[in-house]
Write a structure and sequence with these properties.
Number of helices: 3
Distance between the termini: 55 Å
Strand content: 25-35%
Structural class: alpha+beta
Number of strands: 18
Shape: globular
Length: 376
């Protein structure tokens, strides 16, 4: 009987504890979701705005056609291929392999995501507002953007003006048309897998006008513009488009991509080369535009710099570990006068703040010796 009573009391206490925890969690969730609102039946976000720009005279590059090296993390291996979805992926037949056919090398056909480039002059402004997190026609996402730049010869001047935001993606989600503080490309399945999976300060999918030397040549060009973490190596390292595991998670680059597509009147994308008027060395006209701006200014978010964050975290952890271990050594090893484990004549040292502290294993050797630089 006593046992049943004890068990019943324990069950009641547990239920009360769980109920209190759930109530607290619900309160926390309400607080955390305070930046969400509803307008009609559409969930909206607040305070998600960024502005990005670069003045003329900065570092700008025109990306030339060429193959894209294939990241095994995204595209797998010939034995187990990945990333072959329509439009965003690469078909198996468009992949070259190494000699023993164990790895994919690159695309066979040229792409807008090569490592080939030419320096040009250009400038842009882009203001993004992300208020709707999903693809719905009622999206309240807005964007204004204008890009001005030349071709590699400097003889052709382009002006691209965003006129409409695409709220619902045809081949992949566009997150209402604008995404701020999110992830895109690569493994995310948001837009092309040829770009690495990267942090996006802000990105927009839309339609715009293309002017060449002051003349409007198209008013229905598909446009994708994005401000991402740095996804290419330095000029000295070949300006390579990096793999996922090569990303430094630092800096910012802005990319304007105009693929070989226009937006038809019925709201679907149709294949049509961009009339760039720029002739490639092989005599063909480049059918797309991909321009990278390497010195943009960002307002609304902090620019990633995870190398510095890591160093700060290591400094903080070193200080915390040292402080804690110093306190433990003082309390446990020194003790008080009644502690039989610490003799009056035993010399017990303390650890100065910031000094490396090792632990001793069962074999008597310092387990941390030589590993202090690899703890993070």
């Amino acid at each position: 009987m006593k046992m049943k009573l004890i068990v019943s009391l324990l069950v009641m206490c547990l239920a009360f504890s769980l109920g209190s925890t759930q109530a607290q969690t619900e309160e926390n969730n309400v607080s955390e979701e305070g930046d969400l609102g509803t307008d009609g039946n559409v969930s909206t976000l607040t305070n998600k705005e960024v502005s990005v720009s670069q003045e003329s005279g900065g570092d700008v590059k025109w990306i030339l056609p060429g193959p894209r090296r294939l990241d095994p993390v995204i595209f797998g291996t010939p034995e187990m291929p990945l990333g072959f979805e329509e439009e965003i992926g690469v078909p198996i037949e468009n992949r070259s392999v190494n000699d023993d056919e164990t790895e994919f090398n690159s695309t066979i056909e040229d792409t807008p995501y090569s490592d080939n480039f030419s320096s040009i002059n250009g400038s842009f402004t882009m203001d993004l507002t992300d208020r709707t997190p999903v693809d719905v026609n009622e999206s309240e996402d807005t964007a204004e953007a204008e890009f001005n730049f030349t071709d590699p010869s400097g003889e052709i001047e382009y002006r691209v003006v965003l006129t409409n935001v695409t709220n619902v993606g045809q081949f992949h989600p566009v997150l209402g048309g604008v995404v701020i503080d999110g992830i895109a490309h690569g493994r995310s399945s948001i837009d092309t897998r040829l770009e690495p999976t990267s942090y996006a300060y802000g990105a927009v999918w839309g339609v715009g006008e293309l002017y060449i030397n002051g003349t409007l040549v198209s008013d229905d060009r598909v446009i994708h513009a994005m401000a991402t973490e740095r996804v290419r190596s330095s000029d000295e390292e070949g300006y390579r488009l990096l793999f996922d595991n090569e990303l430094p998670h630092q800096g910012i680059q802005v990319h304007l991509v105009m693929p070989e597509k226009i937006m038809a009147d019925n709201g679907t994308m149709v294949e049509e080369p961009v009339p760039t008027n720029y002739t490639l060395p092989d005599g063909e006209e480049q059918p797309f535009i991909h321009v990278a701006f390497d010195e943009p200014q960002l307002e609304g978010l902090e620019i990633l710099n995870f190398m510095n964050v890591t160093e700060d975290m290591m400094d903080n952890m070193t200080g915390n570990v040292t402080d804690n271990m110093t306190g433990n050594m003082t309390d446990d090893m020194v003790g008080d006068d009644e502690d039989d484990t610490a003799g009056d004549d035993e010399d017990v040292g303390t650890v100065d703040e910031g000094e490396d502290v090792g632990t001793v294993g069962d074999d008597g050797e310092d387990d941390n010796a030589g590993d202090n630089d690899n703890n993070m």
